[in-house]
Sequence to fold (563 residues):
Amino acid sequence: MLHLLKIDLKKLTSYRTFWVVCGLYFITLGFATASGMEFLKWLASFIEGFGSKININRIPLYHFPDVWLNLIWFSGSLKIVLAIMVVISVTNEFSYRTLRQNIIDGLSRFEFLLSKILTNVLLSLMSVAMIFVIGLVTGMIYSPSIELDKVITDLEFFPAYFLEIFFFLSYALMLSILVQRSGLTIILLLLSQMIEAIITSNIDDQLPWIIPFFPMRSIWNLIRIPYSRYAFQEIQDYVDLGSTAIVIVWTFLFNYFSYLKLKKSDI
Amino acid sequence: MENVLSIKNLTKNFGRLCAVNQISLDVKAGQVFGMLGPNGSGKTTTLGMLMGVVNPTRGEYSWFGEVPSNQVRKKIGAVLEHPIFYPYLSGQKNLELNAMIKECPPENISNVLDLVELSDRKDDKYKTYSLGMKQRLAIASALLNEPTVLILDEPTNGLDPQGIAEIRELIKKIASRGKTIILASHLLDEVQKVCTHFAVLKKGNLVHVGRVDDVGRGAELVEISADVENLNELLLQYTGTASIQRQNGFYEVTLRDGFHGKDVNRFLFDKGVTASHLVTRKKSLEKQFLEILAGS
Fold:
């Protein structure tokens, strides 16, 4: 397993695009999540222009345990950058025809896929670790008091966050293997949320029960937007098991479809 | 001798097109086996199936008597069609990656780079290499795991005469180490110079298998010229003549089985004609190849 991961990392670590895209992703992730208070200050001054005032110190954006879900939900929106990196890495193997040479040299098709899946796991784990560290540090700075039971509250969202990233990277991997062209794959990736929204809004009246089973919707349901709690609304402050199951099944299916396609095709 | 490769009724259809049709073939240890055929005759598709990248429609094959698997492929060095590497990696890094895939010691890298004379360019990116260097790197990569079988598909494609000569020398050097080589090519001259056995494919069908040494046997070819007007008619009268062609100022006579150059000579002499030029020629692989293709 580790051997396969090393093979894929060997391909990536000398590839400049990989460093640029991953660098951009992790830098953006770091700066964006760490600068929430600056955003609130800007928001306050913006609203002041309309004559009303908000006291930003009363919004516990970075207080334990709010910090976890706030950061996780926000960083989920950046996963598209990582997914594009996966698309580039996989479609390159088709356009350079190196996939073919890898198989000739003695990798099985399954091993090739596994090496890509393992990289996806690694990238997802790195995102989780990054958000955990940023959450811990900002929480320490901004929380008025640090109590252990508050710090460990909502930590179950981290496995959910891992699942969200890994689900999306698996989706990107599957699209890349099915489409094989980077440009078209990236466009499909960007549009998939919208395409799904169009479909779901059209069948909303006839088959409302089926909507939670759509892949992008299942991710939406897994980690719901938390900021509405500051407008005195109820939020889902637990990981819903039903959505988790749906996301896991989709993730499995994406990787399984990738395998089927690779197995059947002449490379 | 043991079979290195054994193919039984291997078939590949692409939709309605039958690219490879029921090929059966054995390659034994130590052979340098040439696969001949015009472009699109199914050479690369056949090799693709043998290397696991093309799924056969029907039929089976075995390497070293084993069921094909990716583990078996690690024992084979193969270059199909043209060299394939990561363009952004250096030659050295590409080979390191291949060594990881083939699970062979990275110490072999410097040896194979020396063999193909690429050591001084090993740290340059692959995309900066010339075509000849790319071909040589591909051969280096194929030799990396010290394979007992080497598959080369058009290894001299697109090379200049010097590059062709270099690759040919390299193949001979490798063959002299007792490795089994399967060489697909449409350059007949090349196959005749380096191969011991050859097979001919035409539109996916195997139309001939044999030894290269046997090519010269059978019907003899005699080049004749003489200072007489009616040489053509005379030669046509001769019972041993199968066909006559006028070529390069000579009459090229293909003899029937059992007739030889000296028989023609005697016949002409008896007729009172002295040949000013009489050469018995071995049939070239090219001629045999064209005959096989025309006859099938």
Chain A is about 75% helix and 0% strand.
